Amino acid sequence: MGGGRSGDRGRGTAGAVGQPNLLAPADVPALSARFWVLVVATGVLAGLAGAALMALLYASAHLTYSYRSGSFLAAVEQAGAVRRVVALAAAGTVAGLGWWLLRWWTGPGGSEVSTALWRDGGRLPLRRSLGTAVLSVVIVGMGASLGREAAPRLAGAALASRLCDWARIGTAHRRLLAACGAGAGMACVYNVPLGGALLTLEVMLGVLSLRLALPALATSGIATAVSWTVLPTGPTYQLPEVPLSASLTVFAVLLGPLAGLVSVGWVRMIRIAHEHRPTGWRLVVAPVLVFTAVGALAVPYPQLLGNGKDIVQLTLGAQLAAPALVALLFLKPIATAGSLGSGASGGLFTPTLAVGALLGSLAGQGWTHAWPGPAAGFAVIGAAAVLAAAMQAPVAAIVLMLELTRTVDALMVPLLFAVTGAMLVSRRLDTPSIYSVRLPAQ
What we know:
Helices cover 67% and strands 0% of the residues. The protein is mainly alpha-helical and 442 residues long. 60% of the residues are buried. The chain is globular, with a radius of gyration of 20 Å. It folds into two domains: 6-227, Clc chloride channel; 246-438, Orthogonal Bundle (Clc chloride channel).
């Protein structure tokens, strides 16, 4: 699952299907009492960091679009066309100058969670990582077409890495704790404790094991509970009741392979964008140009701004007509990949969900002419299938959809069919995950 097959252990290359595995269970020494103290500390720190970063995100959105509550898209639409372009140009300026200055201040050293876990023994520079997290969440609040989860994931992993420095624990435990911190950061900002733990195991560690599962579950649970003091406790997406339907089941079987092909194209697009990230003085200029272009596209399509959460919600409510679905399915991946390729740092989780939801909703609109079914179900199935294949994490993707919506129990069988079909196609084409594809070449 998610690249965690025993035969894959030891390959450790970005070209392998899934993620390069870090640790087989036997590679992790017994978890001491000191390690469990670090697990609790990591959970608390990740929860506090996630809550602080989300407060910064909302403050950035408020200053840029006068956003207060409710839908971010509504605030963007009320801001007007000119303000969208200006806001994205400003976000590009913040991104370009901010990361150039950060690299000048902190010196060499990466701040990618995947690289740290799979190449650097779980070590992350604290100043560089926290600075990157702050810049990332600020530009997402200003409308950058990137995910918000990259910042809390990075902060959680970096704080765990620093705790390991103080405690002087070994490399295997450091990697495990850094992965737990990253999963906890993700868990607390989306209120998905079980999904966060599974992301730790299936995506970041690439192996499902009881020994590794316990600290992952504890860290994500603690971080989520800590974040409840500040962040909402409800589901991320509001979903109408979706009854069990033969139409949805057959639709899921047919959509799965198509979702797999779309995820393959999406991952390859991310790889190309990452390989062409600018360096030197171009790092200052490229984000300004790309972000301004995204702002111009947002004049007719304001849904492009932000991480894609509102796109998913619109598809769940069947509020997008077929022409808009086609346009957004084409433009959202370009906007996100272009923003990433300009040198900006951001997440891909919600943009990937948005791509899948758009695909499912568009295909569902055609399917209903032959066999009617609930529109929300089509979108959820598409989102889960594309997410699973793009992350190479089928179990985590299904659980995340359950936790993000809290109401898709009747969709379990269709979800399993769609995710299986998507995974088979992506694995047949030897496609890595959206995380391992961003690893630097060795």
